[in-house]
Amino acid sequence: MNKIIRLCPILLITICLVVLIFICTGNAFAESSGSCGDGLTWTLSDDGSLQISGSGDLKPGNWDEDGIVRVSIPEGVTSIEEAMFLNCKNFIGYDVAASNNNYASENGVLFNKDKTILIRFPSGLDGSYTIPGTVKSLSEGAFALCEKLTSVKMPDSVTSMGSYAFNCCSGLTSIQLSNSLKVIPRDCFSNSSSLKSITIPGGVTRIESSAFWGCSSLTTVILPTTIEDKGIAEDAFEGCSLDEESQKAVSKKLNSNDPDKVGTDLEVGDKADYQLEATIKGDAIDRYFYAESSDESVIKVKSLTRNGSINYANAVKYFYVLGVEAVGPGKATVTVYGSNDKLTVISITEFTVTGEAPEPIGPEVPQESFATGFTVEAGAQKDCSGESSVKGSLIETPFAAESSDRSIVEIVSIARGGNVIYSDAVTYFYTITVKGIKPGKAEITLYTDNTKQKKIASTTITVTGDAAEEPTGQKTVKTVTVGNGVYKLSGSTASLSKPKNKNVTKISIPATVSANGKKYKVTSVSANACKGSKKLKTLSIGKNVKSIGKNSFSGCGALSAVSGGSGLEKIGASAFKDCKVLTKITLNKKVKSIGSSAFSGCKKLKTITIKTTKLTSKNVGANAFKGTPAKATVTVPKEVKKAYSKWLVKKGISKKAKIK
Questions:
Q1: SS3 content of the chain, % helix, strand, coil (to 5)
Q2: d(CA 525, CA 532)
Q3: Are 525 and 509 in contact (CB under 8 A)?
Q4: Kindly report the CA angle at 616 between 15 and 574, in degrees rounded to 5?
Q5: What is the topology classification, in CATH, of domain 479-659?
Q6: Residue 515 neighbours by CB under 8 Å, 6+ apart
Q7: Residue 627 DSSP code
């Protein structure tokens, strides 16, 4: 017994040494250098200094965001991707070379070269800040997620602020605004929960949607006389704690004339699309909307398309497009419901149609339609639009199309343009883009999905002219843009590398992309591909995608819907981290690994469906589900429920969650 006691201190010292070595060398396995754009490389030192070298457009590298303290921008950097260091909580400063022709820095803050635009305030800087007198405007999200910032003084030189300028500044208690401002833009101060009072300066005429949404400590608002009638958006101060005097002042200028209830005048024969929005209390409605006219002899519904939503604490704002046709004179209303059970009314739009009723004549067959077919010149492309009613419930799978003879006609793309849901059928609107190859005829058939078992419609394409010449001497391209995505080509495969632009709201990853005279299977999403894409709302993952890289969709704060992914096998670390309005996710049968923090911070992720039986505690990374709702529902295969219940909790699922 005494021998054992004497051995314990030696064993303890040995263990401590092992732990100390592990701690000191823990970062040895993390990447310390790499590429960050064509012509640019990065190196991250132990002290948190990120050194950029080379020339070109700066793109996100595969670096440790939490390890970055300062970044050095050399002369050769020509552009910096928006919101690149947004989630670096320890980041306190930019150091821009004086010889750089595009950017400048002062006290760690990033500006354009002449310091007239404040581009980005580092997320980790704390305390108060006075904006320099040279600044005329603040970029979108200039101070977003700066949680340690407590107060700001803005000089009168500032004439405009971008949307989300002070979004989620949870430590901000006060701000002095410029007297030269005209507009408080959308979501400018949303979720800045410590802001207690605000004085809107004279000259401001409008306060836009969600400008102060979620500022739960905001009690006092002082408005100028320059605010226009109906110049304050209805949800501008939603979620605030305004005192009685402030509530009265705001209500006098509130825009209560909702776009979904505005009367609309049309002439007989007019066709029109209306961009509408409506805020409905309660949880998100996952079903497709349904529209109905009170009198189809006056107004007919032609299409209804949902364009996304914004989730609030106790309500959801929906954006949708209503397409109608004026049939005859009179008045009618179109009611949009949450589904075809008509239990939830989303909006009511009133229409007045003037003009003379059309004479009753036989149905007119258009020159070109899916009934009569289309004509296209060899070597040219053409959009062939149509509509078809299919019995049954809504088809959510991506449509597929096939040419009977690809030597005559090739299919370039398929686009769904909305639908109208009836009690026993759905009418779909779609456009098939085709390319004529050589003279002749071929039939194009549209199917419900790529199994091609259920047909929607077909049409005949007649190709005229001379056969297109074979391309010679063409340069092989390395990337191709398809839809809203840019794909990097390698061998016979492709990878989604980035969105087409920063305003993309929807990305549908196809099964294949075409370039260089051949097709490439889209098998992956590159690391950091869509990281920080603040406007991305919906994502559809193609059937050939096997892996989603590290940080691919991290920080996509508006991403609310993810679908597809039937072939997905690997989800990288932090792939969907901080997708704060994502409500549900399905992990299909082939998924066999999930990286650390993959869904960390997805605080609205209430529904998780796991169909795979291949996951274990070893192939699911630490904190994979940390920060998901306490009352989430997790559905798993029955045969692995017991094993999954144990490791799910270890990986971040709350003990209060329902695992079934």
A1: 10, 40, 50
A2: 15
A3: yes
A4: 85
A5: 3.80.10
A6: 477, 480, 489
A7: T
The Cα 648–Cα 656 span in angstroms is 12
Query: Which regions of 288-407 does DSSP assign to beta strands (E)?
Result: 290-293, 299-311, 315-326, 330-337, 345-354, 374-377, 381-391, 400-403
Which two three-digit tokens encode residue 217? 């400590």
Under a CB-based contact definition with an 8 Å cutoff, are residues 142 and 120 in contact?
yes
pLDDT digits (tens, 9 = 90+) for 626-640: 999 988 999 999 888
Q: Residue 390 pLDDT > 60, yes or no?
A: yes
CATH class of domain segment(s) 259-354:
mainly beta
The letter for the amino acid at 346 is: I
Spell out the domain ranges in the chain.
Answer: 259-354, 374-464, 479-659
Token pair belonging to 640? 């692995």
Q: What is the pLDDT of residues 327-377, one digit of tens each?
A: 889 999 888 888 767 778 888 888 888 887 765 544 444 457 777 788 988
Domains 259-354 and 479-659 share a fold: no
Q: Which pTM was predicted?
A: 0.42
Residue 233's identity, in one-letter code, is: A
- Is residue 35 within 8 A of residue 61, CB to CB? The reply is yes
Alpha helix positions (H), 158-305: 244-252
Question: Per residue in 47-75, is it b (16+ CB within 10 Å) or e — as a string?
Answer: ebebbbebeeebbbbbbebebbbbbbbbe
Q: How many CB atoms lie within 10 A of CB 318?
A: 22
- The CATH classification number of 374-464 equals 2.60.40.1080
